Amino acid sequence: MVHTEICMEPREKEDEQIVADIMRRRFFPAVLTHKAWEGFHFAGHEIKITEATDSYGAVVWPSALVLCYFLETNSKQYNLVDKNVIEIGAGTGLVSIVASLLGACVTATDLPELLGNLQHNVLQNTKLKCKHQPCAKELSWGVDLEKNFPRSSCHFDYIMAADVVYHHPFLDELLLTFDHLCQNDTVILWAMKFRLEKENQFVDRFQTLFDLEIIFDFPSLNITLYKAMRKGRMQSDTPNGLSEEEIPKDGSFSCL
């Protein structure tokens, strides 16, 4: 069963307001260039992301914007300063860049064919701007996990993932990767867009290993933002039993 934190599903108006605010963070070049790029405003910085249309992993998807917005607007509750963070399926690197700008020590990972563009984006947007310079590292889900990320020496405070579940044949390997990287006190922040029944099936399987809470839900985008930890390790961020009157109604994207 999926639990919901105190910042329950936003009403339709709140959903529209927050989604509009998220999408306003994106901007496009005034003049077309030979390389496709998009711009974003997060964590007090202008971020330019180089994209490629020939790969799912080289495009910024809305789930990444949702996760970035959450990290920025909840930086007190989810304080990333000096925290070890790994992003799986980092793609263009936007989430990793925002986490780095918020003070985290970040490892951005993806497939080898995406690593060049990922490294370019991360370096371009974080050099001399971050407390910890992030790194980009190859990670093929389920492959050589103990060799490349030994559990004895690789401890991550947060695992971040945006839109890693879609129509691909590596869902078993993805679950294995979550399982390997997540230790008892690791928090998973995972934004997912629901498209097909496979997404629901993966969530069910995910919950055999992890406790799962809905942090926020965006019906207009079909995107849900989850927080997860190993079974039995989750502690609620808020007291149980708050009434509807105690839930904020100002459209703010935060949990009490």
Automatic annotation (TrEMBL):
It comes from Nothoprocta perdicaria. The keyword ATP-binding does not apply. GO terms for biological process: methylation. One of its GO terms (molecular function) is methyltransferase activity. The keyword Protein transport does not apply. This is Protein-lysine methyltransferase METTL21E. Residues 236-256 are annotated as: Disordered. It holds the Pfam family Methyltransf_16. CDD domains: AdoMet_MTases (cd02440).
